[in-house]
Amino acid sequence: MPDMDDAMDDVLTRARAFISALPHSRALGMQVDRFGGGHAVLSMPWDARLVGDPATGVLHGGAISALIDTASGASVMSHPTAPTSTATLDLRIDYMRPATPGQTVTAHAHCFHITRTVAFVRVTATDDDKDRPVATGSAAFTLTGAVGVI
Amino acid sequence: MSLRPVSEPLHVVQSRRDAALDWLVAAVPYVGFLGAGFERRGDELTALLPFQDMLIGNPVLPALHGGATAAFMEVTAIIELAWAALWEDIEAGRIDPSAAGASPVLPKTIDFSVDYLRSGLPRDAYARARVTRSGRRYASVHVECWQDNRAKPIAMATGHFLMPEIG
């Protein structure tokens, strides 16, 4: 269905423009890989400036937090209820293992439940080894402008 | 305990502590990326996050990026924890930041949970961490982050950390 594909591409293009307009996300080199239906996948390449421990070259937890927060917010914005804006209420991140130095970290966020006022999100971040998460997160977001629960 | 004599000259005490703090902070490149710094009063640390455009997450409001606030608080917790763990060694002169290859072994984050209380304004932010429990292997830390008004924090966080193996 070419029309459907075009529509999907258009949504992804707009999501990319939106994320690249966020100065902090841009500074961290984040890219949008997937966006829609309550799912957002964002990736962040390894960068020496973002290292937490130079002895190992492992990315700082804070960089992973920023990626997870952005992916989570994006998953809320991608929800079919189409909220116009959102803000993080709380975010908890569990760090399973260090991200392998040199590898891109990818966060897959899923906005799995939404009410008129709050959105709930789960996130998993991985590097090249997709079977062993680097970190997982869960978050709640405020909502404005959602058209209602579908 | 082999603490230094009380009669030690003030400037010696200050420069020893400042050098140790600089050494600790310089060990984390991400602190430089955020542009954060630390101020010391005795053993009390206050983290500073001077405002810059690249910390913005919502250009419309504008507001600080929640991820930047979280990262700032996590850095504050790690530096406070390492600082508290090293304090006696610093005071006893057992730490030599100028020694080649001497870099601190830092605590590792197990989990970090942030409550966002107010939107972060486009201005400087501050944070202080309190070690609520410090064991041989695990530590718990609480962090508060505020801007203009100390009584109105923009975010609070708690985290658990794995302490480096000693020896």
How would you summarize what this structure contains?
The complex is a heterodimer of chains A (150) and B (167). Chain A is α+β, with helices and mostly antiparallel strands and 150 residues long.
Structural summary, described in words:
The complex is a heterodimer of chains A (150) and B (167). Chain A is α+β, with helices and mostly antiparallel strands. In chain A, the strands form 2 sheets. Chain A has a 6-stranded antiparallel β-sheet with strand order 1-2-6-7-8-5. In chain A, strands 3-4 form a two-stranded antiparallel ribbon. Chain A has 3 helices and 8 strands; from the N terminus they run ααββββαββββ. Chain A has one domain (2-144): Hotdog Thioesterase (Thiol Ester Dehydrase, Chain A). The relative contact order of chain B is 0.19. Chain B has one domain (10-162): Roll (Thiol Ester Dehydrase, Chain A), CATH 3.10.129.10. The A-B interface holds A 21-28, 48-55, 60-63, 65-70, 73, 85, 87-95, 98 and B 27-30, 32-34, 53-60, 63-68, 70-72, 74-75, 103, 106, 108-116, 119. Strand 5 of chain A pairs antiparallel with strand 5 of chain B.
- At the fold tier of CATH, the topology name of chain A is Thiol Ester Dehydrase, Chain A
The share of residues in extended strands of chain B comes to 25-35%
Query: What is the radius of gyration of chain B?
Result: 17 Å
Q: What integer value in Å does the Rg of chain A equal?
A: 15 Å
Calculate the mean pLDDT score of chain B and round it: 92
CATH top-level class of chain B: Alpha Beta
Total domain units of chain B = 1
What pattern of helices and strands is seen along the backbone of chain B? HHEEEEHEEEE
Which spans of chain A have pLDDT < 50 for at least 5 consecutive residues? Answer: none
Shape of chain B: globular
Total strands of chain B: 8
List its traits.
heterodimer, A: 150 residues, alpha+beta, Thiol Ester Dehydrase, Chain A, six-stranded antiparallel sheet, two-stranded antiparallel ribbon, 3 helices, B: 167 residues, 29% helix, globular
